[in-house]
Amino acid sequence: MAGGGSRAALVIGSALMHDLGSLFPVTMTLAGEELAFTFVSSCPSPDAVEDWVRLRSGTVVAGRVVRFFVDADGRRIRVELAGTPVRALVVLAEEVTAAAVNAPRLGRWQDQMPCTVRVAMDELARMLSRCRHRAGGAEPLIDLELAYRPDRDHEVRLAGAHERVRPFIAPVRPVLALRWRSATPEQRKAFLDELPDGTPARGWLRRRRTARVMGLELDVPA
Q1: Which branch of life, at top level (predicted)?
Q2: In what order do the strands lie in the sheet with 199-200?
Q3: Which long-range contacts (CB under 8 A, 24 or more apart) does 67-71 make?
Q4: Predicted model pTM
Q5: Integer distance in angstroms from the first to the last C-alpha of the chain?
Q6: 194 to 7, 50, 175, 211, 212: CA distances (angstroms)
Q7: 89, 85, 88: which is closest to 34 by C-alpha?
Q8: CA 148 – CA 80 distance, rounded (Å)
Q9: Would you list the domain boundaries of the chain?
Q10: Are 61 and 113 in contact (CB under 8 A)?
């Protein structure tokens, strides 16, 4: 992955998410080329962890072998992708509270988040590739952090939905906060030119803007 920059980390991270299955991403942090996730396990108990790991052991993602390390009590799984700084921690559902993602409750709405985050990661990787192609220079490096913010329109949407649909309506919205780590002014401009018109972030200086990338909010320096 040497020289691939943040783009390569996002591509590999997206592939890892796909191969691990639809696991809810509690956190995702990208620091240049180093990418780390925390996922909620699909295993109902520590007893099921061994089988989950066995089925995935030896998996090859982006040409690299995925390695699993299970804690002694079987409640946490560390995931490493050989030869890359891409890492993940998989925890049992009972270890994650609604407060950890700023939600009033957990539920079926979590099922849609893995796909939402992956699609946005893929598009950001393509945008970084295009901005380098247009502006030249070395691979740009960014910092990226996933957060969940309360959806102010949640109650309104909930009231207008059929009862069977309500559990799937998320009380929070996923947001990616982007910061530039290493990029030329030309690369930054090329990247910003691709973003749809967004709204200025709140604050006195208003030096950030929020735009949607494949349906997910991106908070980026203006």
Answers
A1: Bacteria
A2: 60-61, 64-70, 76-81, 86-91, 34-40, 25-31, 141-150, 172-182, 216-221, 208-213, 199-200
A3: none
A4: 0.90
A5: 29
A6: 16, 44, 18, 10, 11
A7: 85
A8: 25
A9: 1-222
A10: no
